[in-house]
Amino acid sequence: MHEAWPAAEQDPRALRRAHEAFIRGGRLAGAAGGARRLPPVRRLVADSWRRSARARISPDGAACVELADEELTRHREEHPLSAAMPVIRELMGAYARDGEHLLAVCDAAGRMLWVEGHPGTLRRARAMNFVAGARWSESVAGTNAPGTAIAVDRPVQVFGAEHFRRPVHAWTCAAAPVHDPHSGRLLGAVDITGGDRLAHPHSLAFVQAVARAAESQLALLAPEPSLERLRLTALGRDEALLTVAGRRLRLSRRHSEILVLLAHRPEGVRGDELITLLYEDESVTPVTLRAELSRLRGLLGAELLRSRPYRLAAPVDADFATVERRLGSGALSAAMRAYAGPLLPGSRAPGVVRLRARLADGLRAALVDRGDPGLLADWTYSAWGEDDVELWRASSKVAPAERLPAVLARLNALDAELSADATGLQRPGDHPGR
């Protein structure tokens, strides 16, 4: 749900004071005065600041450039949003140049694919690494319109000191997410960035309209495939289940990892990147990967598994993606209902390990923020949450009186176990390597 008052109605000085107070002490207080005074920080921004602080983002840092030269060119060419760039440029290009603004398009990881516009503004933006190839996801760059739009999967406008990082306080930006028109999957975001003149509701409406136009263009260029949707179940189990054309297939562990990674990256993954995501051993050769993919193609059928880049030809309904979507939209109860456990818990594939940790950490952070006794109990009394000290501690602060003794007893037992581990003592029944 959008907040009733836009960025343009805020007092820049009050925002700067609120930002400094939060950076120094983590405090967010409403403005003093009459009932008609607006609080200095919108809820959307306050929530984003808290996520930025939990991610330990430096308020004085700069974005990192992750893609350059040939790698950036290849990623652009392979990304689905490349097909929408002619429409985006037609709608935004002249507006950005004439208004001394920038148009930017990023992928779903917050990496800038294109940053274009007024030459002078481009030069100023380079000072904070707002350039193609830099990563501006909220989790690494703090509160900013494209990064936060991706994080919450909705249009966002960020004004001045609402940005978490001080070097970005001179800027205003508005961004809207762009989705695959058929699967609904988040592809990235389109953004307009510039000075104070963009701090107006029209800027947000404009960028939303551009995002919808981009999605319409993608729908025209790539009609919905006739192949039946795939269903992938990978939470709480080491061997995923795949339902395709009425068949229910139990996949091997390696094939489970491949399907999870391809479901997460519907635009496709290059062979060398897939090796990095799958194998801990850096000496694994492309021949090994091709053999695995050949066996998987034999199981699924050649029409479903394609190459250059490796991708699935049919849309996938993955249980872990459902949890991500619900969590991103703030539907925490629904996300918890869909969460059947860690993603492929026995997998050590680097790409799966990162996805598993990101999903669990996102749920845990949301549970702590919400402070709902029932949802915290659902986590702490689960097989995967029974040893989660942080969540037991959060539960102890909100548990009803009748449950509090049991919660405190479990928390004390976990604290004792941690103390014993820290002193090198081995408890009865412990086994090496536990």
Automatic annotation (TrEMBL):
Q: Gene3D superfamilies in the record, alphabetically?
A: 3.30.450.40, Winged helix-like DNA-binding domain superfamily/Winged helix DNA-binding domain
- What range does the record give for the signal peptide? none
Q: Which residues form the OmpR/PhoB-type domain?
A: 246-312
Source organism = Streptomyces lateritius
Does the record's keyword annotation contain Transmembrane? no
Protein's UniProt name: GAF domain-containing protein
- Annotated Pfam families: GAF
Task: Tell me which UniProt keywords the record has, alphabetically.
Answer: DNA-binding, Transcription, Transcription regulation
Q: Specify the taxonomic lineage.
A: Bacteria, Bacillati, Actinomycetota, Actinomycetes, Kitasatosporales
The answer to whether keyword Transcription applies is yes
Query: Matching InterPro entries, A to Z?
Result: GAF, GAF-like_dom_sf, OmpR/PhoB-type_DNA-bd, WH-like_DNA-bd_sf
